[in-house]
Each structure stands twice: as structure tokens, then as C-alpha cells.
Amino acid sequence: AAELLDNDEDGQPDNPLVVEALKENHGFLLVWKNESDLNIFDSLENPDAGQDLGADETIPSWHTNGNIGQFDASLEEVLHLITHIGYHNAYPNVFGETIGSSVGDAMDIARGGQFTSIPASYPSGAWYTYDDDSCDYACQVTEYVFWALTSILGAHENRLDEIDNEWLLNTAAKVQQTDTAIYTLLTDPQYHFPTILPDGQYNGQTSN
């Protein structure tokens, strides 16, 4: 989380608006060991502000072994929290997880149409084909931004065979060439998305 929010590791958040949105909307990460631990969501006042992450899905060694083997899910789930609660609320017209936002329009292109529910099959030209029936439109946007940004950052260069049932643009070059809408949004410097893939070794200095 520190490397995603302070990618240049200077001890200050790259985008204070996103951090404020996370704070104001009480964003939180729930790390669980057993699936039964997720029952705590039922007792929370605002469970939608949270994101869960399995302890055993957190694989720090993935970052030091050439990005091969079991993927470090913390990269995905922490980014979900930052975009779903942070960017969604900080820039509702651009990164709001709704039909008609800039990122929503980009996703509709990537999926080959505007689908409020998962279609029986995606159009043949689609490159984003996530098919979890429990994932609504907002959830689909969250996943879309994860795939696009982490592909731009180089996380999936060795993973195409693992992910091509959901996402085909596994490199920065493919995203830039094929999905120009999302590439433009995620590389626009005014939004301060990460430009370097986190490696789990945060060296930023914090101040009191």
C-alpha cells in the first residue's frame, strides 16, 4: 500500500486527494487466515468500504523470484481498495465505477459493449472478459483497472497463460496499442498512478 500510494518513496503520498478519499470514506483492508474470519463483515457499519485479503494469498517472494510462481494477491487486493474507495470517490466523473464515467466508457470498449450483468459470452474482439457472475458493474471496473495498471507496470509479462481467460493485454505495449482509452487515463500525470511495480520494500521516510 505504501509503494502504491507513495510510488516515488519520498515519504509523501503522490496523490493526497486519493488518500483523503480513503480516510473520509473509512477504507480498510481485512486480512484473514480462515474464510470464516470474513463473517466479521456482517457486523461492520460500512462493509462496502473494505477489501479482504487472504494471509496465505500474500506471497512476498513473488517480487524477488522474477515474478513467477504463485502471484502475490496483495498487489491486487490493496490496489482494489485504493481504486474502489480512493480514486472512485476522488474523481467520480473520471474513475467513478459507474456507467458514463471515463473509466466506465473505456471498460465498455474493452468488453465489446456495455454490460450491466455478465453476458453469456463476450464479443470476439473483447480483451477484457471477466466472467464472475457475482461481480456487478462497479466490481468489473475495479478488476479492469487492476488488470490494466498492473499490466502497464509489468506484473503479467510471464502470466498470459494464467490470465488470458480474463485479460489479454498482459504487457504495457499491448495496453498502449490496443486499449488507448485506459492507457491514457492511467498514465496521465495529474492522477499520479504508480509508474513502478511495488516490490514490497518500501524505503520512504515518514514524518510526525
Mind sketching the topology for me?
Layout: H1 2-5, H2 16-24, E1 28-32, E2 50-54, H3 73-90, H4 92-95, H5 102-111, H6 137-152, H7 160-163, H8 172-178, H9 180-186
Parallel strand pairs: 1-2
Helix pairs in contact: 2-3, 3-6, 8-9
Please describe what this structure looks like.
The protein is mainly α. 38% of the residues lie in helices and 5% in strands. Helix 2 crosses helix 3. The longest helix has 18 residues.
**Low-confidence runs of at least 5 consecutive residues:** none
Rg from Cα: 17 Å
Q: State the separation between the terminal residues, measured CA to CA.
A: 19 Å
Helix/strand structural class: mainly alpha
Average of the residue pLDDT scores: 95
Concise account of the structure shown:
This protein is mainly alpha-helical and 208 residues long. The chain is built from nine helices and two strands, in the order ααββααααααα.
